[in-house]
Design a protein that fits this description.
mainly alpha
Length: about 70
């Protein structure tokens, strides 16, 4: 989870990622940020994020991103 928050902070350090659960809903993350996150997740966690995984429910919070990574690692 700390690695995901570090990845998010590299993109936008102004957000409290431990509590924010509206990263997509409030347009904190744009499409370029999402593509950067996908690349970082794939490299850091050795997972493959499919186009089907790129949906708001998986990117709205650090917790949701972590849950997706855990699911993809299984």
């Amino acid at each position: 989870m700390k690695k995901i928050i570090a990845i998010l902070e590299d993109i936008n350090p102004e957000v409290d990622y431990t509590t924010c659960d509206t990263l997509i809903d409030n347009q904190i993350l744009d499409s370029f940020a999402i593509l950067s996150i996908v690349a970082e997740l794939q490299e850091e966690f050795d997972v493959y994020v499919t186009p089907m995984d790129i949906k708001p429910a998986n990117f709205n919070s650090a917790q949701a991103l972590w849950a997706m990574v855990e699911r993809l690692k299984a």
